[in-house]
Structures are given as structure tokens and as C-alpha cells.
Amino acid sequence: MIKYVSALSGTAALLVLATTPLAAHAEALWDPYLRGAEVGNPSGALPPPGVYAFLDNYVPVYTYFDSSGHKVPGTQLNGLIEVPGVLWVIEPHILGASYALGIVQPFDYTVSAGLSHSVGGGNLGTYNTILVPAELSWALPHGLFISTGLKVHLPDSSSTLNGLETGKLANGGLPSGNGHATMQPDFGLSLLTGGWNISVGVHITLPITDDVWNNVHYHSGDEIALDYTVTKRLGAWTLGVGGEQENQFTPDTINGQSQIGVGRSNANFGLGPIVGYDFKNFDVQAMWIHNIVTRNDVAGDFFNIRLTHAF
């Protein structure tokens, strides 16, 4: 039985597009953190020592919303994002905490319309490899758990429209990830008692290099993403509700010049149901999240089916 599933799966890709190439906008191309990907997990807790494999099957059905939060007609972004990864929880404890490390290699297929560099028939490729050198979780009294960790997104994404040239635009299409590296500190808090999982996960994405196109240096802004989970275990079943929130707090820059004025940064918030079933050493969890508030972003509904296996 998988008691706790790590926050490791909460890292992948979500496309956010400007309406004109390199325009003043919230985020260039891809958000490093896949919105809502940790929903349903106990963000503050690690599972018992062992090796765990997981696969998120993430389907966004989105349109673009402007700075006033209004849907832009004729825009569309659909896709399938596959997020396989491995987590290794190691003994002994470090500083009194459970310790884990891992690796994630997402793949994505996207189809867009009415957006800059729309790909029409679709684009398939590998997203940035994500290394997890450290994730620590402390068990506190009364069923409380806290965690912290670090993830590193490598600048190694590919694109079928662009050979395998990392993170570059080509033929009016899209690369399948970012051309820059990103550091991602993570923090989590969970209350796990009586079958309840009440959790909040916090993820801060800090791009540390630039995307470079034709000697133009584009530096993506820093973002904070939060995932919320309230679930109750009933026998082998888990039922509950989840939420996600994402806000950019520093502007994108082009050659050092800010591209966003006050109030122009991207933001989104969504809620939806969660259902899961535990097959002892294999766990299935499904969720549907509907975006309620969106600004300067693509949004709508996303669906995720998470499969986790304990070896």
C-alpha cells in the first residue's frame, strides 16, 4: 500500500503563449511548473524508504484569457503531457528528515490555434529533464509533516519542428520546452490523520539562464505556484477536492528591459474533484480542475490521471 506519494510529480510543462512573438506578456513559452500537478499528493510527506515510479497523464483543454480576465475568441491550446519519473527514498534520515532524490523526463504533444507560433497539426517532443537532488520531509507531532526540496530543470528540451535544437523557435512552430535552465525550491505542509490529507504545496520557479533567439536574450519571470488538497480515505477509495494557483511576481525581460507593467503579470486559480483507488502496491488517482480566475494566461479545464507503483 502506498501511504504517501511524493511531490516529485509536481514538475513538468504548461504552455503560456504571447499573442505576438516575444511580445510584452506574462511568461515566455512554457511555465516550468505544471499547474496543479501535485494536487492530491501529501505535499509535506515522503513515502516509506524504497523506490517508486509514477506517471502523470495530463490533458489541458485551454483558451487564452487577456489582462482583464476575458476569454479571447478563436484561441485554443490542447495537449497531452506525459510525466514519467522515479523517486528513491533513502535510509538513514538526514537532519531528522526522510530524504529522497529522483529524476523526471516529461513528454508533450500540443495543438494550438489563434496563438503566436500555433502548431496546427501538433508538435511532439521532450520537455526539459528535471533533476531532484534533494527532498526532505520531517514528521511532527499530531500528524503534521513539513517538507522542502530543490529541483533543477535542464535546458535540453526538443522539438520535432526544429530537429533537436534546444528551446528555439522554428518554422512558425513551438519547441517542446524551454531553452533556459530553472531552479525550483519546493515547500510543503500536510496534516495526515484519520484518513484525511489536508495539504498545501508551494513551488517557486527561478529561471537562471536566458532563452536566446537571433541574439535576443529573453529572460522569463519568476513565478510562485500553490497546490491545495483536501481528501478523505474511505477503505481503498480516496475522495476529495483540489485546487491550484499560479502567479508571476517578476517581469519577463528582453535584453534586460522589462516587458510587463504593473498588473500585467499572469495569474490563474482553479478547483475540482479528486478520486483515487489503492491497489496495495499500485495507486490510481484522477482529478478534474476547472480554472475559475485567469489573467494573461491560457486556462479552462485540465484532467490528470496519476499512476504510482511501489517496487
* CATH architecture descriptor: Beta Barrel
Q: In the CATH hierarchy, what is the superfamily?
A: monomeric porin ompg
From the N-terminal CA to the C-terminal CA, the straight-line distance is 11 Å
Largest beta sheet: strand ordering: 3-4-5-8-9-11-12-15-16-19-20-21
C-alpha-based Rg, rounded: 19 Å
Largest sheet: 12 strands, antiparallel, barrel
**How large is the share of residues in beta strands?**
over 45%
What can you tell me about this protein's structure?
The chain has 311 residues and is mainly β. The protein has one domain (7-310): Porin (Beta Barrel). Helices cover 0% and strands 58% of the residues. The chain contains no helices and 21 strands. It has a twelve-stranded antiparallel beta barrel. The protein has a four-stranded antiparallel sheet with strand order 13-14-17-18, with no helix packed on it. The relative contact order is 0.21.
Keywords for this structure?
311 residues, mainly beta, Porin, 4-stranded antiparallel sheet, disordered N terminus
Summarize this entry quickly.
The protein is an all-beta fold and 311 residues long.
